[in-house]
Every structure is written in structure tokens, then in C-alpha cells.
């Protein structure tokens, strides 16, 4: 499979909406029950990119979008500003082909370059493939929250994984500075 990873733009939102729709309806990576509309997805995209967080897409040479990934705030309290949460969604035909792994590695690189110190993965449904992709990128198991979601007629666990970025916790950040995405 030949594809490139590039920064996402607004022309990609329709494809993101369809990929996410399939994940909402058939998967457990997200605990949403009803797929968001195109307008809602456009608003989410604008919020994330408008804050300067990385938002990327994997695209085949034919132009087919295989998947997308982004980093966003884990929480909005100021002390969390050095931590981002990753999100990765793939089209069904891209799963199991290394696209998610490539997106995650690129997202880690971009987030590190922006000055973030930690990345957390909140893995809905404790999905084994997602856990394996994160483990392959160096994420460590942080814990399991049991029965945190009820979807598709069953209770779902959530796995937390974490990866230090750059210097991680080896040094204190400059408290007068925010990561590149934050404006204070």
C-alpha cells in the first residue's frame, strides 16, 4: 500500500466524517453512539487545528484517505498543558496494514516538536490492535478502567497508555512558556 502522511486540511473533513461514522456505528474506539454530522466534525477540526495541535491524514496516491490522527488537550486545566491525547481512526480497508502505526509515529514526532512532554492514549474497548500499535511505539500500560462504557450491548473497559515525549519528566518545562500550540 503506497500512501503519504500529510497535514490535514478542510478538504479532508468529508472523508473524516465517513471514517468516524463507521467507527461510531461498528467499533468501540469511541464511546459516541450517534455519528456526528459533517458540520460537527468541521467544528471539531477547527477547534483542534485552531489551537495549533497536529492533525494529520494518510492518503493513497489515488487520493483515497485511509485514516487520520490528531493530538488534542487531555484536559484543559493549565497544569495539563504539557500533555496531549492521541486519536487515530482508520478506514476499514486500511486496518491491519501499518497505517495506524505510521500515523501514530508521525503524530508523536510532531507533538514532540511542538514541545509537549507526554502523550496519553485512552483506548476505548481495550481494543487489542490499538494496544499493540501503541505498545510498538513505546507507550507503557498506565491502567485499566473497568466497565466505563456500554455500547453494542456490552460493557467496555478503557485502557490508558502513556509515552514520554522529548525530555518527558527528566526536566522541568519553562513555566513562562507553553508548548507551541498554546497561547496562554
Amino acid at each position: 500500500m503506497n500512501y503519504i502522511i500529510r497535514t490535514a486540511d478542510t478538504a479532508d473533513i468529508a472523508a473524516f466524517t465517513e471514517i468516524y461514522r463507521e467507527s461510531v456505528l461498528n467499533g468501540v474506539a469511541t464511546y459516541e453512539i450517534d455519528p456526528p454530522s459533517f458540520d460537527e466534525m468541521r467544528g471539531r477540526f477547527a477547534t483542534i487545528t485552531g489551537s495549533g495541535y497536529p492533525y494529520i491524514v494518510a492518503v493513497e496516491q489515488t487520493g483515497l484517505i485511509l485514516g487520520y490522527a490528531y493530538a488534542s488537550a487531555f484536559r484543559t486545566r493549565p497544569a495539563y498543558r504539557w500533555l496531549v491525547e492521541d486519536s487515530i481512526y482508520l478506514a476499514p480497508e486500511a486496518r491491519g496494514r501499518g497505517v495506524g502505526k505510521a500515523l501514530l509515529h508521525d503524530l508523536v514526532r510532531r507533538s514532540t516538536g511542538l514541545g509537549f512532554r507526554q502523550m496519553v492514549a485512552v483506548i476505548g474497548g481495550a481494543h487489542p490492535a490499538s494496544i499493540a500499535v501503541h505498545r510498538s511505539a513505546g507507550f507503557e500500560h498506565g491502567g485499566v478502567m473497568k466497565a466505563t462504557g456500554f455500547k453494542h450491548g456490552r460493557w467496555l473497559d478503557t485502557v490508558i497508555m502513556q509515552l514520554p515525549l522529548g525530555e518527558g519528566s527528566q526536566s522541568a518545562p519553562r513555566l513562562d512558556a507553553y508548548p507551541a500550540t498554546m497561547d496562554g
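Strands lie at 3-7, 55-60, 65-73, 83-90, 118-124, 140-151, 154-164. The longest strand covers residues 140-151.
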